[in-house]
Known about the structure:
This protein has helices at residues 20-38, 54-62, 67-84, 98-113, 171-180, 188-199, 228-233, 235-238, 248-253, 266-279, 311-318, 320-330, 341-371, 383-394, 396-404, 408-429, 438-459, 464-471; strands spanning 4-8, 42-49, 91-94, 117-127, 132-134, 139-142, 145-148, 156-165, 185-186, 205-206, 208-209, 217-218, 221-226, 258-262, 288-291, 294-296, 299-300, 337-338. It is an alpha/beta fold. It has a domain at 341-487: Isoleucyl-tRNA Synthetase, Domain 1 (Orthogonal Bundle), CATH 1.10.730.10.
Amino acid sequence: xxxxxxxxxxxxxxxxxxxxxxxxxxxxxxxxxxxxxxxxxxxxxxxxxxxxxxxxxxxxxxxxxxxxxxxxxxxxxxxxxxxxxxxxxxxxxxxxxxxxxxxxxxxxxxxxxxxxxxxxxxxxxxxxxxxxxxxxxxxxxxxxxxxxxxxxxxxxxxxxxxxxxxxxxxxxxxxxxxxxxxxxxxxxxxxxxxxxxxxxxxxxxxxxxxxxxxxxxxxxxxxxxxxxxxxxxxxxxxxxxxxxxxxxxxxxxxxxxxxxxxxxxxxxxxxxxxxxxxxxxxxxxxxxxxxxxxxxxxxxxxxxxxxxxxxxxxxxxxxxxxxxxxxxxxxxxxxxxxxxxxxxxxxxxxxxxxxxxxxxxxxxxxxxxxxxxxxxxxxxxxxxxxxxxxxxxxxxxxxxxxxxxxxxxxxxxxxxxxxxxxxxxxxxxxxxxxxxxxxxxxxxxxxxxxxxxxxxxxxxxxxxxxxxxxxxxxxxxxxxxxxxxxxxxxxxxxxxxxxxxxxxxxxxx
Length: 509
């Protein structure tokens, strides 16, 4: 089995500054990337910005800026956010880079040579905000204006010369793909949406625009720019130095293991992207996961609605790891979620401060007073000790399955349960009453330290800063973290010196 793993976020459209939805996608991708690394995988984690199209051109014009200068400025805010969120991304791709232009034009040339693209005239509805073409059935009228049902964005009728991709030709092949690969699209509700859309009949897709200039030129006709989605989707390969399919990056990591996207761009990734690749005779990604939106109140966040939630404000007030923990635990992955400050504070106070932080403080304080911060020896496990320690080995395969099927919430529930049980174990065993039974005291402390180590390893992909502080108790640095060691009940060496720890999480009053 290959030990390479390639995960991507959507590349973000930098027409405005990042919001919580962007942060959520990136944090979820980082969670999977970090877990796969501690599971021994060589991980390539990609994020970036999609910088072409009419929407960007108009946004730049609105600020009297050259489009590239505008993109340089806004793209930097997304790159800075990657650092602020402590993302472990391998690369940050920009569609204005030469390596990307080369990839897109190569893919276009292949499609054109294979007869998959032809020149005609486009007449229909177009959303500048979504950079998407919509059919009549996709449109509704609201407050006297035509809008897309899917996004609520305004649409306008356009007529212009355009190149078309023979999307209709691939309808049966796509349905065959979805039928034969049950988990190509997750969650199941998203797959059902896609299958229903394709079964309703596919029409050929306009893949160029002539009415504006900000984009990658069609190689054989400089009057046209390539449709922004055909351009943007190719980033997943251009980051691997496509079209050089013999280089090590491409050979090791394509096809992608997981394209993580928001549900609003599902059609582009689950219909158009595999159709382009099938037509070009290129390997398909293994999975596309369409997660829900992070809502502001009951609405999707958007610049036009003025309801943007700034992740930096939450981080500045409550800290990064608490935000990461909250988003991964409290949002039902695959469904819409929102930021509730009350629930965020509850996560900080109950789970992080009271459960995990307090457990670490109590066990280490007791170990310092009674064992001089030394891992005890002469350990004799009883059923009470083994039962709680074996929770990790007994559920190890389940945890791996949760990760491989993007079941974040079950993974998080397991951790929360173990934090509660570890605290209960320490309370119930009452080591402070065992000072005359040194062997039993040793075993209780050893077991408690092992529980802290195991929980910290599972928390590493969730709250990396804080878990590394905990793992430093045992002199375990980032390179030494191995998830399979949670199956080992006697990992800690007898007599090993351990380190003190400051308060991990301050309660929010």
